[in-house]
Design a protein that fits this description.
With 198 residues, the chain is α+β, with helices and mostly antiparallel strands. It contains five helices and nine strands, in the order αααααβββββββββ. It has helices at 5-24, 29-36, 40-48, 55-65, 69-73; strands at residues 88-90, 93-97, 105-112, 127-134, 137-141, 144-148, 153-157, 162-166, 172-179. The chain is elongated.
């Protein structure tokens, strides 16, 4: 099978990379053989480039060293990992949609201008979670008038009369998670129980 020059180079680099990784961990070929079930002669030929790397050989080695398989083969990145987000203007605010496609929860980054400072409460179906990135957010929720600083969050049922914006002194940058049908976020991490003896 013919490989591209990049793949051929990546394959030839596997052996030296495996040897460097093993010696950096102070591990002998015999110890690695015992940990992986691969003979020392096969491991030696693999490191010297006399044996072609295969998934059957590399998987146990990656487990023994506790490193991702990509680290062993030096896999080149595929595609462009950058996501280009197109902002929209909504009621004078700049909104960056962070979720693509339909789903029960939608995520947004919002920049609320200084001029968005006059409360205009409204209601609609849904549930919202806000996290302040920068600036100071004013949140009017029912009969409550709250100020949130960077690092603070709020969550609420949007059927309550609500409004959020700037205090009128500076713009505010927030992350918003919104569920149209009232879906609440599901937090999977539970707090650790407190040890009253500590």
């Amino acid at each position: 099978m013919e490989h591209s020059p990049a793949i051929t180079q990546a394959l030839s680099d596997v052996g030296p990379r495996l040897q460097r990784l093993r010696t950096a961990r102070g591990m002998t070929l015999a110890a690695l053989s015992e940990a992986t079930g691969i003979s020392t002669s096969t491991l030696s030929r693999l490191e010297s480039g006399q044996r072609r790397p295969s998934l059957e050989l590399l998987l146990p080695i990656s487990q023994a060293h506790q490193v991702p398989l990509d680290d062993l083969v030096g896999a080149p990145e595929v595609g462009d990992p950058r996501v280009r987000i197109k902002p929209r203007q909504v009621y004078g605010s700049t909104v960056f949609p962070l979720t693509h496609g339909a789903g029960p929860i939608q995520a947004y980054k919002m920049i609320l201008p200084t001029t968005r400072s006059t409360p205009e409460a409204r209601t609609h179906e849904g549930y919202e979670w806000l996290y302040v990135l920068s600036g100071r957010l004013r949140l009017v929720l029912g009969d409550k008038d709250l100020l949130l600083d960077p690092g603070e969050a709020a969550e609420f049922d949007t059927r309550l009369p609500h409004w959020f914006g700037s205090t009128g002194k500076a713009p505010v940058e927030v992350l918003s998670l919104f569920g149209r049908q009232g879906e609440r976020m599901h937090v999977r991490a539970k707090p650790r129980p407190r040890d009253d003896n500590s």
